Amino acid sequence: MPATTSITRITTKGPNEAELEAWPVMDPAGLESGAPVQKGILYDEDPAPDYSVGIWECTAFVDRPGPYPVDEFMLLLEGTVEMAMPDGTSVTVHPGEAFVIPKGLECQWKMPGTVRKIFMILDGTEPGTGSGAAQNAGLGRITVPPLGQPVHRDVTPPATLTTREVYFVNHDSRMTVHIDTFHDSLHGPAPQARRHLIHVLSGEVRTDGASDEAFGPGDSLYLMPGSGLSWRVAAGTRLLCASCDLGPAPP
């Protein structure tokens, strides 16, 4: 379902709180245990780079260890996910937390119960290539951005309107995950160059124009590029953002 509006509210049950759609059965060859039943809804998709944004719900399963097939940002709404690593360590993600898995990372997905998540997926450049590959620690781990208080606390007023903390850049630099903190109120054009999946951590975002909407803590929204959308962002607002450029990959 390609997005047709400039801004879309992401709800936990899909557009207009509609029930999620049944999705195809997983290939048993890729599973270590479980008979998962999955449902979902797509808010946007582009088959050329294999890009999609949506909601996914699935019952318990454990897949087989192997390289992760895509770059994926996820915000967990319900359930718990454990990602087991080849060295014996694991990363456990709980409801309300976000995480990013880079394409090619060796890991094993484990779900003891039903999980629901918001996701952004990009099947980008092969691991180890592209301008984002050099000295990029995020490509060798599962990244869990800190969604609580800001990591850095300045004792003096910041010199810029917005502070950006970048937590993930994929292999070809087309997908990034960051947290923006607005130190003062902003009224102007919303970001347009890329597609943005945004989750409000604190404060408020309000859109201007015919579709005047307010988004507060816990709300999620999706922005399309080229829309000319204007928004108001309150001082103190913090936004978790996964953004993607679907143009040609950088050399």
Description:
- With 251 residues, this protein is mainly β.
- The chain is built from no helices and 22 strands.
- It has strands at residues 7-10, 21-22, 31-33, 38-46, 51-58, 61-63, 66-67, 71-78, 81-84, 90-93, 98-101, 106-111, 115-122, 162-169, 175-182, 186-189, 195-202, 205-207, 214-215, 220-223, 230-233, 238-244.
- The strands form four sheets. A six-stranded antiparallel beta sheet has the order 1-20-17-22-15-14, with no helix packed on it.
- It is globular.
- The mean pLDDT is 87.
Low-confidence segments, given as residue ranges, are none
**CATH architectural group of the largest domain:** Sandwich
**CATH overall fold name of the largest domain:** Jelly Rolls
CATH homologous superfamily annotation of the largest domain: Jelly Rolls
What structural class do you assign from the helix and strand content? mainly beta
Task: Give helix and strand order, one letter per element, not per position.
Answer: EEEEEEEEEEEEEEEEEEEEEE
Largest sheet: 6 strands, antiparallel
Give the termini distance in whole angstroms. Answer: 30 Å
Strand order of the largest sheet: 1-20-17-22-15-14
Mean of all residue-level pLDDT scores: 87
**In percent terms, what proportion of residues is strand?**
over 45%
Counting DSSP E segments of at least 2 residues, the number of strands comes to 22
Tally of separate helices: 0
Shape estimate: globular
Percent of residues in helices comes to under 10%
How many domains is the backbone divided into? 2
Radius of gyration: 18 Å
Briefly, what CATH class of the largest domain?
A: Mainly Beta
